[in-house]
Amino acid sequence: MAEILVLVDHSEGSVKKVTLELLTLARSLGTPSAVWLGGGADAAALAQLAEYGAETVYVADSADLDDYLVAPKAEALASLIADKAPTAVLIASTADGKEIAGRVAIKAESGIITDAVGVDADLTATQSVFGGSTVVKSKVTRGTPIITVRPNSTAPEAAPAAGNRADVAVSVSDAAKSARVTGRTVAQRGGRPDLAEAAIVVSGGRGVGGSEGFGVVEALADTLGAAVGASRAATDAGWYPHQFQVGQTGKTVSPQLYIANGISGAIQHRAGMQTSKTIVVVNKDPEAPIFELADFGVVGDLFAVVPQLTEEIAKRRA
Amino acid sequence: MKVAVCVKQVPDTWAEKRLKPEDSTLDRESAEGVLNELDEYAVEESLRLIEAHGGEVVVVSMGPERAGETIRKALSMGADAGIHVIDDALHGSDAIATSAALAKALEGRGFDLIVFGSESTDARMSVVPAMVAERLGLPQVTFAQKVEVDGSTVRIERQTEYGFDTVEAPLPAVVSVVEKINEPRYPSFKGIMAAKKKPVETLAVADLGLEPATVGLGAAWSGVADFAARPPKAAGTVVSDDGQGGVQIAEFLTVQKFI
């Protein structure tokens, strides 16, 4: 049956949730094979990939894949594509994932589609573009379809498969070893999930009024195990770090639940969140356009509503 | 130091964007064209590097005639010269062909750094910088929130989900920058006047040494089969806070099984 390569997104030896989503999606297209590039592929990680349907796990373990930016991974993946001639390749739509995909597409002389939110059995990809206002169906017409898929596009479902480990040799060219990663700096983020991957995102905007106001947003997020996001108004004002910006010039998120607090919903922001499955809005302005997206909205003061919500959730869980 | 900064004209960030029914390409006429916001940071960073190290900044753009306005904007901010890759045959090019055309326009000109914004606000693919690096065989140091050049080395902080990575590479190299790396300057009146006299070279597909059949919509390696406006969302429930707003949301979340 058609082999679908899924590039494993991993960090410190643990498999990111998006990989399990991609394996689930790959099963509807053919037989998934996971591709692990770099170190850290231990038995537990392999077992998890098998649990979600990887028939084979190709492991290319070389320090060169971890120590340099993107290019060596693209070489290793392209060489595997040349060797295995898969039907398609699925990669997570992250910064690294998209850059690897772009380089691989050129090496493999193949078309690329980024930010798919779904892929049909005939490899037609669905994209949600222009901030979710337009739904596009696209297809790669040359080579091996290289498709990057947004996190939270598919609900991960286990379906155990063999998960046979197949080690592959890597030889990375000198040219690919030119951008060296010399340090990794981890910012404190209180153990919250990644914004792009989180099932729930709680965000704050202009109505939060200042950096200290984000305390109520963070408290709600932590009660729900959610990531924290911010509108551009809030990040531009310096109230919250820029990497948490959701919107046209920031991150695009598509969580199960998005709670927008004190955000008016300018197109700039809607572009980054309007494909969220369920949207809850708290804003004191009843005319705020964000209410058009709300499944449930409360017109009111977020500093009254949000702490009450946090408390009520804790109470209901007790 | 010689810096190329690649910029794109895009529909105004705040405008509703749409595709043209006849060929499923972006309708560039329905909204005002502006310098891609994220490219403003790239232009600013290029100018700052030159102010610190000396040299020149060449702004490079591929696009139809009106993209010339975008080149002028970058020139009015302070770039020294422009290259406009312009040819009807390029209409509808995918990222693969775009990167091929840009690589041809850039190569052999002795650029030490080729700087991009991290993505365009229309297509939002974020792949062209990596593709250009791939085609030119240059190191890529992308998604930079900080760029430093030290002799023949460029060092960046690459924004990540968890913080940042420090990455370094020898020059020449391809850089992309994220929003907020700097505060882009506004063109001064003097800058706007000076920009009118700065040289802009135009390059057609033939000048790049590319076959017209390898670029444009017909040569794309992927295509749009179909598109439609997203169906409007069914109206939700909106209530006024009567002192129980938080509890009402909790009730909604319980029914939806989030709690």
Task: Provide a concise account of the structure shown.
Chain A has 318 residues and is an alpha/beta fold. In chain A, 29% of the residues lie in helices and 27% in strands.
Task: Provide a descriptive summary of the structure in words.
The complex is a heterodimer of chains A (318) and B (259). Chain A has 318 residues and is of the alpha/beta class. Chain A has nine helices and 17 strands. In chain A, strands 9-8-7-10-6-1-4-5-11 form a nine-stranded mixed sheet, sandwiched between helices. Chain A has a five-stranded parallel sheet with strand order 14-13-15-16-17. With 259 residues, chain B is α/β, with parallel strands linked by helices. Chain B has six helices and 13 strands. In chain B, strand 8 and strand 9 form a beta hairpin. The N and C termini of chain B lie far apart (58 Å). The relative contact order of chain B is 0.17. Chains A and B meet through helix 5, strand 7, strand 9, strand 12 and strand 16 of A and helix 3, helix 4, strand 7, strand 8 and strand 9 of B. Strand 9 of chain A pairs antiparallel with strand 12 of chain B.
Task: Outline the fold blueprint.
The complex is a heterodimer of chains A (318) and B (259).
Chain A: E1 3-7, E2 10-11, E3 14-15, H1 17-27, E4 31-37, H2 43-51, E5 56-60, H3 63-67, H4 71-84, E6 88-92, H5 95-107, E7 112-119, E8 125-129, E9 134-140, E10 146-149, E11 164-167, E12 180-186, E13 200-204, H6 214-224, E14 227-230, H7 232-236, E15 257-261, H8 267-273, E16 278-283, E17 296-299, H9 302-317
Parallel strand pairs in A: 1-4, 1-6, 4-5, 5-11, 6-10, 7-10, 13-14, 13-15, 15-16, 16-17
Antiparallel strand pairs in A: 2-3, 7-8, 8-9
Helix pairs in contact in A: 4-5, 6-9
Chain B: E1 2-7, E2 9-11, E3 33-35, H1 37-53, E4 56-62, H2 67-77, E5 81-85, H3 95-106, E6 113-117, H4 128-136, E7 140-150, E8 153-159, E9 163-170, E10 173-177, H5 189-195, E11 200-203, E12 222-229, E13 237-240, H6 245-255
